[in-house]
C-alpha cells in the first residue's frame, strides 16, 4: 500500500513539473523581453509599487541612510497569458528574472544595489515581483536644532523610460510597511539615537529639470516627463543623556562664573575661574566628539558653551583688574568713579555695609581682602568721603 502511494505521488509531482515546463515553453516561445508587454504601443504601462522596510541605519557623518527591505511591484503583461484549464489548473508559475520584461528602476539620490529574487506570473497576466534591496541614499541633514532636531530623507524611485511608456503608481494607495523587529520587538521605532516618526509615500513628476505634483496630461509633456516615487523617512533625535552629559555641566560652569564674584577675595575668584576654564576645555573636547557635524547654523548648545568660555576668560581679566584697583596706592580717576556711580545705582541695599567707613588716614590697603560687592558698597556708600581721601575726579 505504501509503495502504491509513493508511485502515485511521484506521478503527480512529475505531472506538475511537466505541466510547468510545458506552460513556460508556451509562454516564452514568441516572448521578447526587450519590448514593453503592451499590444498598443501608444498606451503606457502602469507599475504599482509598495515599499516594505525591515532595517534603517543612519550615518550622521556621511549624511546617509541605509535602507533594507523588499520592493513589491506588479504590472499587467499582455503577452504572458494562458488558460489554466489547458494546463491542469495551473495558475501560478515562477520564472527567471532574465526571462521576462521588468522596469529599469533608478534611484534619484544614490547608486543603489537592487537584487531581484523571484517573479510570479498569474492567470490574468499579472506579474508580481518582490526583490530584496539594500540602498544607501544621500540626505541633507540640518543639525541647528540639536538635540531636538527632526530629519527627513526621501528615497526617490523612477524608471529609465518616460511617462509615455511606463508610469509608477502607489499600490492601492497603501503607505509603506515598516517592520523593524519581530515578536516582542514588532513595535520597535528607535534606531540608535533616532526615533522613527513616520514613513510616507507620494508621487511627483520630473520635467524640464523641475519637480511638480501636477500630473502631465498632454502627449508632448508625457514624452519629456518621468514619474518619481518618493518614500519619505522622518526621524526625530532621541538624545536621552543630553541633559546630564551636556546641558548640566554647561549650566554648572556658568553658575561658577556668576558666583565667583561673591567670593570674599579676588584671589579666590581668580583661582576658581582658572579651574573653571580648564574644566570647560576638557568638557568641550568631549562635547565636540559627541556633536554631529555642523551643517548650516551651529546648534544652540555650541553658542552657549562658546559664550560661557568667552565670559570665563573675560571674568578672569576682570578679577585681575579689580584686584589691581583694590591694591593700588594712587588715587582713582574719573572713569573709575563713573563705574562706581553706576554700581551704586544698581547695587542692592543688602550688599551695602555701613560699618565700613573710610577716614582721611585710610587707604586702599585696608580693604585689600574685601569682596567685589564690599568694594562697590564701600565706595558707593561713602562717595563723599572717598572724594576727601584724595580720589581725584577726572573727565576724559
UniProtKB/TrEMBL annotation:
SUPFAM superfamilies: Nicotinic receptor ligand binding domain-like. Keywords: Membrane, Transmembrane, Transmembrane helix. The keyword Transmembrane helix applies. GO terms for molecular function: extracellular ligand-gated monoatomic ion channel activity; transmembrane signaling receptor activity. GO terms for cellular component: membrane. It comes from the Eukaryota. Pfam families: Neur_chan_LBD (PF02931). InterPro entries: Neur_chan_lig-bd (IPR006202), Neur_chan_lig-bd_sf (IPR036734), Neur_channel (IPR006201). Residues 21-212 form the Neurotransmitter-gated ion-channel ligand-binding domain. CDD domains: LGIC_ECD_cation. The chain crosses the membrane at residues 239-263, 269-289, 301-322. PANTHER family: NEUROTRANSMITTER GATED ION CHANNEL. This is Neur_chan_LBD domain-containing protein.
Amino acid at each position: 500500500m505504501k509503495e502504491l502511494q509513493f508511485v502515485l505521488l511521484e506521478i503527480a509531482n512529475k505531472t506538475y513539473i511537466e505541466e510547468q515546463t510545458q506552460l513556460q515553453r508556451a509562454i516564452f516561445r514568441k516572448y521578447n523581453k526587450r519590448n514593453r508587454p503592451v499590444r498598443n504601443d501608444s498606451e503606457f504601462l502602469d507599475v504599482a509599487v509598495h515599499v516594505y522596510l525591515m532595517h534603517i541605519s543612519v550615518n550622521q557623518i556621511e549624511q546617509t541612510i541605509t535602507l533594507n527591505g523588499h520592493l513589491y511591484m506588479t504590472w499587467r503583461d499582455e503577452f504572458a497569458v494562458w488558460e489554466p484549464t489547458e494546463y491542469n489548473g495551473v495558475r501560478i508559475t515562477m520564472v527567471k528574472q532574465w526571462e521576462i520584461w521588468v522596469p529599469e528602476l533608478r534611484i534619484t539620490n544614490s547608486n543603489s544595489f537592487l537584487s531581484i529574487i523571484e517573479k510570479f506570473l498569474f492567470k490574468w497576466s499579472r506579474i508580481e515581483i518582490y526583490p530584496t534591496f539594500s540602498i544607501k541614499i544621500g540626505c541633507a541633514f540640518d543639525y541647528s536644532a540639536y538635540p531636538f532636531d527632526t530629519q527627513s530623507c526621501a528615497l526617490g524611485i523612477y524608471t529609465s523610460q518616460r511617462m509615455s511608456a511606463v508610469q509608477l503608481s502607489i499600490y492601492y494607495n497603501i503607505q509603506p510597511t515598516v517592520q523593524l523587529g519581530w515578536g516582542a520587538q514588532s513595535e520597535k521605532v528607535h534606531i540608535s539615537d533616532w526615533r522613527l516618526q513616520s514613513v510616507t509615500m507620494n508621487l511627483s513628476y520630473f520635467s524640464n529639470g523641475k519637480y511638480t505634483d501636477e500630473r502631465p496630461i498632454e502627449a508632448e509633456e508625457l514624452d519629456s516627463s518621468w514619474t518619481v516615487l518618493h518614500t519619505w523617512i522622518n526621524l526625530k533625535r532621541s538624545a536621552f543623556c543630553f541633559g546630564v552629559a551636556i546641558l548640566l555641566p554647561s549650566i554648572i560652569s556658568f553658575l561658577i562664573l556668576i558666583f565667583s564674584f561673591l567670593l570674599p577675595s579676588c584671589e579666590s575668584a581668580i583661582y576658581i575661574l582658572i579651574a573653571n576654564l580648564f574644566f570647560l576645555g576638557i568638557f568641550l573636547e568631549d562635547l565636540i566628539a559627541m556633536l554631529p557635524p555642523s551643517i548650516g547654523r551651529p546648534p544652540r548648545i555650541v553658542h552657549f558653551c562658546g559664550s560661557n568660555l568667552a565670559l570665563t576668560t573675560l571674568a578672569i581679566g576682570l578679577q585681575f583688574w579689580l584686584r589691581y584697583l583694590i591694591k593700588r596706592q594712587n588715587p582713582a580717576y574719573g572713569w573709575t568713579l563713573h563705574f562706581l556711580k553706576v554700581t551704586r545705582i544698581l547695587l542692592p541695599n543688602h550688599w551695602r555695609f555701613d560699618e565700613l567707613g573710610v577716614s582721611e588716614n585710610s587707604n586702599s590697603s585696608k580693604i585689600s581682602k574685601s569682596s567685589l560687592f564690599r568694594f562697590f558698597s564701600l565706595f558707593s556708600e561713602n562717595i563723599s568721603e572717598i572724594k576727601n581721601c584724595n580720589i581725584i575726579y577726572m573727565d576724559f
